[in-house]
Specification:
13 helices; 317 residues; TIM Barrel; eight-stranded parallel barrel
């Protein structure tokens, strides 16, 4: 496929995850009104999917303890799907009551990481997912199953691709509508990504697959291009490159939304997202959070944002 000659059917879908994955590890409390304002701004920037919050125990993730208020008060834009991360049946009940459009369920391919992150074995996680699927039947919500550490684990190292595929099969058998392959700690490489994406796309369509990359080792956008060329079309990203994994020392955040959209714009890959608006929102994050953010484009500007030549150039003949 020629990456410089794409049509609308090759649109790359960006799922914005900063309001959930980006904010969940922030040490500074972000006020509910500020969360809502951020989501409302993202809702009018061209996104079709926004992970707006989670319904995890407030003790586990205090930064997102206002999930109900956020979902109840955001201005829902037509055509935008608002997603909630949920850990269990209680969280699913809360999310459905708050009118989440989609529930995201997460289990690691690594037993060790799942025990560290979810405080239970993979087998117990899958059993609990069955209860959530049963609860969701008859409701309008869709279900997405995320395979965390799909490309590597900071505790166990390499993850067998066949194990990842077995989990995908288990999710589909349970009745999940979508699948996410998550590079939770930024261990993936482009060749590995292309191989695994191709194998998963033998099981599901591109419209049901999401890729979740971190930029911990500088390969985030390279992995996006590799997955895109292998047939994937939907990718998680966080405004400003926010986020990270508490179990990976030195881990940076998710791939940066505006950096990804800029890459697509430069290569002629349509996203439908307003890049100028993203840059403006990203430049407001340091004031909101109290620290700089990893994203590069908001600092450097777009290729077309030209600068005046130095004054001395005029005198050179």
């Amino acid at each position: 496929m020629n990456a410089f000659n794409h049509t609308l059917q090759d649109r790359l879908i960006v799922q914005e995850v900063a309001p959930r994955d980006g904010l969940q590890i922030e040490p500074t409390w972000v006020e509910t009104d500020d969360k809502i304002a951020l989501i409302d701004s993202l809702s009018t920037a061209g996104f079709t999917r926004i992970e707006a919050g989670s319904f995890v125990s407030p003790k586990a993730i205090p930064a997102l303890r206002d999930g109900e208020a956020v979902f109840q008060r955001i201005r829902r834009a037509p055509g935008v799907i608002y997603i909630a991360l949920i850990p269990n049946v209680k969280g699913a009940e809360r999310a459905i009551a708050a009118r989440a459009d989609e529930l995201n369920l997460v289990m690691s391919a690594s037993q060790t990481h799942n025990r560290a992150n979810m405080r239970m074995s993979c087998e117990r996680s899958l059993s609990g997912f069955g209860d959530i699927v049963a609860l969701a039947k008859g409701s309008p919500v869709t279900l997405n199953g995320t395979v965390a550490t799909a490309f590597g684990c900071p505790f166990e190292g390499t993850i067998d691709e066949n194990r990842v595929l077995a989990i995908v099969d288990a999710y589909l058998e349970l009745g999940m509508h979508g699948i996410t392959l998550a590079d939770t700690t930024g261990m993936a490489n482009p060749r590995q990504v292309a191989r695994l994406v191709a194998r998963v796309l033998e099981r599901i369509g591109a419209d049901a697959l999401t890729l979740h990359f971190h930029n911990t080792r500088g390969l985030g956008l390279a992995n996006v291009l590799s997955a895109y060329e292998a047939g994937a079309r939907r990718f998680d990203a966080a405004l400003g490159g926010l986020g990270g994994c508490p179990f990976a020392p030195g881990a940076s955040g998710n791939i940066c939304t505006e950096d990804l959209v800029n890459l697509c714009n430069e290569m002629g890959i349509p996203t439908g997202i307003d890049l100028a608006r993203l840059i403006g929102l990203s430049r407001g994050l340091p004031a909101l959070l109290g620290h700089d953010v990893p994203g590069q484009l908001a600092k450097a500007g777009r290729n077309g944002d030209l600068h005046p030549a130095p004054e001395y150039v005029r005198s050179i003949v």
